[in-house]
Amino acid sequence: MGVWDELTGQAEAVEIFSAAAGAGNLGSSMTHSWLVTGPPGSGRSNIAYAFAAALLSTGDDDVATERQVAARTHPDLGVLATERVIISIDEVRQLVTTSQFSPSVGRYRVMIIEDADRMTERTSNVLLKALEEPPPRTVWILCAPSEADLIPTIRSRVRSVRLRVPRVADVAALISRRDAVDIATATRAAREAQSHIGMAHRLATNADARSRRDQTLRIALEIRSVSDAVRAAGTLLALAGDDAKAITAERDAEERAGAMRSLGVEPGGTIPPALRAQLKTLEEDQKRRATRSLRDGLDRIMVDLLSLYRDVLLLQLGATTELINLSIHDELLRASENSSAAGTIAIMDAIGTARQRIESNVAPALALEAMLISVAKSRPHTEFAR
């Protein structure tokens, strides 16, 4: 299996990166600073690591290098993938320092920054210096949703490659093949995930994730009053918390067990006082990751709600575009008949506002309540309609 085989719906980007990897320093296709942009779930990090594997490969079918890159253990690969709200300046400084080393086994030293949009301007300026004068055998690959998420001086020093939103059929085929899921389940997951590959995988393989998504949509459809909206906000916040815990709990436990083994502490054993500081650092990192995971869970909920009201609006306007939430078509039809297109657009605007507020550190419960009250306002026979 080649390094590009798991990338779906990105033929143009694959062509660019494979040509660059094959050209080396002699070809015009090769530059030393790249920016991979595209919507969430389009496979930005996947293509970055595929490019890294191609650059670090010592020949055709270099399985050992592909495995090392996949495990993030290749000696010539540097990775900054944070699960915090922002990337710290110290993390970037450390990566910049290691980028100055010469390759140890491969042709290049490859430095990848996932979610480069999480850098503040001050942190970005630290990276800028490395991009301006990179060592001849160092390649930088940044990933971000769009070019606008990075400061102009960085944008001017990278070659940008924009990824497409994969087709539902392409994502479904990938999920079905890779995860041994029947094509009907994979297609529904890909459609409801709106071609987000990671989320499609989760919906196709995790019954609890599917259940939480279904519950989210039904809660919104049942709101009739302000009191309903307030209760729904609490329920959605709890659902986001459950989703975040499901994603992080197993990983946290594995990390802690691994740390205990590396420190020589038996399972269930007492931690010596001298080692407690190291475990405390791990616990603090996990808390920061939990905060980010909760925000991501809330954002997933609002993306799902946007898909719900997008479907309602399409029905109200009589559009023939395929619905995302086909499994609840009858409920969507009733909702479209019981509200106006203007009211639906107002709800979608409120969801967008709530996303911005949560990203700006407004208390999630307050942001959700304000958002869902707009849902109640759109319903007939509520206290607002009297």
- Shape type: globular
The N- to C-terminal Cα distance equals: 64 Å
Indicate the radius of gyration in whole angstroms: 23 Å
CATH level-two architecture of the largest domain: 3-Layer(aba) Sandwich
CATH class of the largest domain: Alpha Beta
InterPro entries: DNA_Rep/Repair_Clamp_Loader, P-loop_NTPase
Protein name: DNA polymerase-3 subunit delta
Pfam families: DNA_pol3_delta2 (PF13177)
Organism: Glaciihabitans tibetensis
Walkthrough of the structure:
- With 386 residues, this protein is of the alpha/beta class.
- It folds into 3 domains: 11-162, 3-Layer(aba) Sandwich (Rossmann fold), CATH 3.40.50.300; 169-205; 226-377, no CATH class.
- The chain contains 15 helices and 5 strands.
- It has helices spanning 11-23, 44-56, 63-70, 89-99, 121-132, 152-155, 168-179, 183-192, 197-205, 207-221, 226-262, 276-317, 329-337, 341-359, 364-377, and strands at residues 33-37, 77-80, 109-113, 138-144, 159-162.
- The protein has a 5-stranded parallel sheet, with helices on both faces.
- Mean pLDDT is 87; it is low at 382-386.
